[in-house]
TrEMBL record:
Domain named Thymidylate kinase-like: residues: 3-182
Protein name as catalogued: Thymidylate kinase
PROSITE patterns: THYMIDYLATE_KINASE
Family: Belongs to the thymidylate kinase family.
PANTHER family named among the record's database cross-references: THYMIDYLATE KINASE, UMP-CMP KINASE 2, MITOCHONDRIAL
The species this protein was found in: Amycolatopsis samaneae
């Protein structure tokens, strides 16, 4: 199961709350967050580029999308191992993130060429496991930006990057996420109201609805 949303939407908090609810119900849980900073050379290149390293690489939409995809390609064995060993696997970001941000950067919608390219690359060519469902934490871009800025102040390793500080990009990305969810792209989507914060999500009810029925 994949948790998606804008930077600052509350994905990490929701992942933690769902993990606790599932453990309390006796389910085993595996977790993985993308990009895998500190574990994958491709993820580390992403972080360095988003903080203005590697010249003009950040300007290439397809180049950046390829780095994100290669990070996930390198995790295929880990994902399959988690799926084999656990009742539930929670992924913080996955293929849909690449589709949403690449489309937003190119000012395309969810039916555009780059979304098709991401599918062909990550699903068809790289053979990434398809998720059972997506959870979209839907928040207004300005709310997500405020949270991301506040997080950057309180957490030393969470400085806002070039994508997070681009408010127009975040607005376009939110629209593409809505379109992906409406079309059921890659797997079924459940849209959650994240305006009150993921901490207010009823994780127990959500866990029962999605995983324990």
């Amino acid at each position: 199961m994949v948790i998606e949303g804008l930077d600052g939407a509350g994905k990490r908090t929701l992942t933690d709350r769902l993990t606790g609810a599932l453990h309390a119900a006796g389910a085993s849980v595996g977790k993985l967050a993308f990009p895998r900073y500190g574990e994958s050379v491709h993820a580390d290149l992403v972080r360095e580029t988003l903080h203005r390293g590697h010249g003009d690489l950040a300007d290439s939409v397809y180049g950046m999308a390829m780095l994100y995809a290669l990070d996930r390609r390198g995790a295929v064995a880990d994902i399959r191992a988690l799926l084999a060993a656990n009742d539930v696997v929670l992924l913080d970001r996955y293929v849909a993130s690449n589709a949403a941000y690449a489309a937003a950067r190119l000012r395309q919608d969810a039916h555009g060429e780059v979304v098709r390219w991401v599918w062909d690359l990550e699903v068809e060519r790289f053979g990434l496991p398809r998720p059972s469902t997506h959870l979209l934490l839907r928040v207004a871009p300005e709310v997500a930006a405020e949270r991301a800025e506040r997080r950057a102040v309180t957490e030393a390793d969470r400085a806002r990057d070039a994508f997070e500080t681009d408010d127009a990009l975040q607005t376009r990305c939110a629209a593409v996420y809505d379109e992906l969810a409406a079309s059921g792209w890659l797997a079924p989507w459940h849209v959650l109201d994240g305006e009150g914060g993921a901490a207010h999500t009823d994780a127990d009810s959500l866990a029962k609805e999605l995983f324990l029925s």
